[in-house]
Specification:
This protein has nine helices and 13 strands. By secondary structure, it is α/β, with parallel strands linked by helices. The chain has two domains: 170 residues, 3-Layer(aba) Sandwich (Peroxisomal Thiolase, Chain A, domain 1), CATH 3.40.47.10; 139 residues, 3-Layer(aba) Sandwich (Peroxisomal Thiolase, Chain A, domain 1), CATH 3.40.47. α6 packs parallel to α7. It starts with 5 loop residues before the first strand and ends with a strand. The structure holds coenzyme A.
């Protein structure tokens, strides 16, 4: 297979379940309020699967990927690889990516999952970029899909109010044009793994989080990886048209925007309607910005995210 100068994002697709849970809905079973949640997080509502639902993350990813493929004009057989970022796979194996391959009819694709929590989509973008630039593949489908509400403790008011369920997918393809993924930077800090983790085997299984600690690390590390990605692209921050950060908390996003000297009008946010959807949050925000005409040919976008691990990642893409 030939190698390419760049890898481009051809298209994006998303899926969210129909059920909407508002902040008010939490007031019926938790000591909380719409006012507290909006002020502390910026979230007003989130799409979720009903409690006890048998919904599969692979179906979420399939729905998002079908839209991305259709928009790109790429046929399922032309896909060389599928990389699925998820912390809520259908099962440990087969990988969710293999199930996606079967559902989508991508019979010529390799497929594997990666786990980098909320940074998963940008990690997948980085891996796809490297594989395309090295000539291992021409077209890779990257997917971030999560049903996080299956992992939260609904009695823990500091965590369960934050999350929503969603999937996003993008078709990444090799090109010899100048536009495309200009840089990707990955980072991890396992020393802080305990501040956001899922319980080990054998215990009652929930997500645990020390919110304040995650908040501080998120502001620091998302800013840092964003700066690194811009420098690695050979650009300065004034040359970035849009920042698409992981949608975790509006206060984290505002602080990162300020540290990066990005004015609010250049920062994409949609967490007020979806909450934190982990690896799906970046494609969800990208899809919206693209659909609203905020991304055109030549628009340069900085992606930056952080999640459990800690794992964090940044990328600069010229569309
Ligand atoms: C979780 C988070 C919203 C909490 O906000 P905070 O301002 O840090 O609040 P604190 O944790 O200091 O708690 C302040 C008080 O609010 C209370 N509280 C927590 N959740 C509450 C809720 N949903 N409703 C009302 N009160 C709540 C706490 O119990 C605490 O009460 P106390 O002072 O009596 O002990 C915030 O820390 C955060 O968003 N962190 C990052 C989380 C994240 O993004 N994780 C995913 C990363 S990928």
């Amino acid at each position: 297979m030939t190698s390419f100068k760049r890898a481009r994002i051809l298209s994006v697709g998303t899926y969210v379940p129909d059920t909407i849970m508002t902040n008010k809905d939490f007031e019926s079973f938790l000591d909380t309020s719409d006012e507290w949640i909006v002020t502390r997080t910026g979230i007003r509502e989130r799409h979720i699967v009903p409690r006890g639902s048998s919904a599969l993350v692979s179906d979420f990813g399939t729905n998002a990927a079908r839209i991305a493929l259709e928009r790109s004009g790429v046929a399922p057989e032309e896909v060389d690889g599928i990389i699925c970022a998820t912390v809520t796979p259908d099962s440990l194996y087969p990988s969710t990516a293999c199930t996606l391959q079967a559902n989508l009819g991508c019979k010529n694709a390799f497929a594997f999952d990666i786990l980098a929590a909320c940074a998963g989509f940008v990690y997948a973008m980085s891996i796809a970029n490297s594989m395309i630039l090295s000539g291992q593949a021409k077209t890779i489908l990257i997917v971030g899909a999560e049903i996080l509400t299956k992992t939260v403790d609904w009695t823990d008011r500091a965590t369960c109010i934050l999350f929503g369920d969603a999937a996003g997918a993008a078709v990444v393809q090799g090109t010899n044009e100048d536009e495309g993924i200009l840089s990707t930077c990955l980072g991890s800090d396992g020393v802080h793994g305990d501040i956001l983790h899922f319980s080990p085997w054998g215990e009652k299984r929930f997500m645990y989080m020390r919110g304040n600690d995650v908040y501080k690390q998120a502001v620091r590390l998302i800013t840092e990886i964003g700066q690194k990605a811009v420098a690695a692209a050979g650009l300065t921050i004034d040359e970035i048209d849009l920042l698409i950060p992981h949608q975790a908390n509006i206060r984290i996003i505002r602080a990162v925007g300020e540290h990066l000297h990005m004015p609010p009008e250049k920062v994409v946010t949609n967490l007020e309607r979806y909450g934190n959807t982990s690896s799906a949050s970046i494609p969800l925000a990208l899809n919206e910005a693209w659909g609203e005409g905020r991304i055109k040919q030549g628009t340069t976008v900085l992606f930056a995210s952080l999640g459990g691990g800690l794992a964090y990642a940044g990328a600069v893409v010229r569309f």
